[in-house]
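Sequence in, structure out. Go.
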Amino acid sequence: MKKLLIASTSTVHGKGYLEYILPELSVFFKGINEILFIPYARPSGLSYEAYTDIAKKGFAKISINVRGIHEFDNALDAVNNAKGIFTGGGNTFLLVKELYDRKLITPIKYVVENGIPYFGTSAGSNITGISMQNTNDMPIIYPPSFKTFGFINFNINPHYLDPNPSSKHMGETRETRINEYHTLNETPVLGIREGSWLDVNGSQVVLKGELNARLFQQGKAPTELPPETNLSFLM
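Output:
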């Protein structure tokens, strides 16, 4: 049975890296002393080594070791032998391109569908849905496909932002962009605000954290969903 934590972000305002979700992670990865980190999204162009070091320091606080997938001679073996997987945020286009180029989409999907716990933040959460089409990132590179893992039967928009009525910015809102997506696509989209996450156990999906999420469905008005909402109806 698949187990996932799908988080909007790795860092919330005023707290350190992963600090807000460490208590949840200690339970999620209980009994696991080492996890595999996938640093391919490279936020701000960080090297794999530098990014993995950040993840290592975060997980060290709950006594879990982290090894970057680039540290292994064989990435496929690393996936197949992983006890847990963490995919960090950054640029989703780059992340998906690297996963396809390294032929890791299918192997990761297989091990997670068969019970290896998966934790994703930001771009690492984008790829848990049907496609990466609701990412907020710039298309700095072109992946072979927008299709992603499909662990859940809807798409994620992490870092969801509400319009700021006092802002003088006249550009499109996040809601506008998602509505544009729904003129051509049927897949539901869940906007997850900072500090919130989804707890997935098999076909059961529950919203966690302190903030509402915003659900967008083609042809319907957006819906605000409070914490502890069971989203299994989308599966």
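Check: Residues 3-234 form a domain with the Rossmann fold fold (CATH 3.40.50.880). The CA atoms of residues 45 and 143 lie 17 Å apart.
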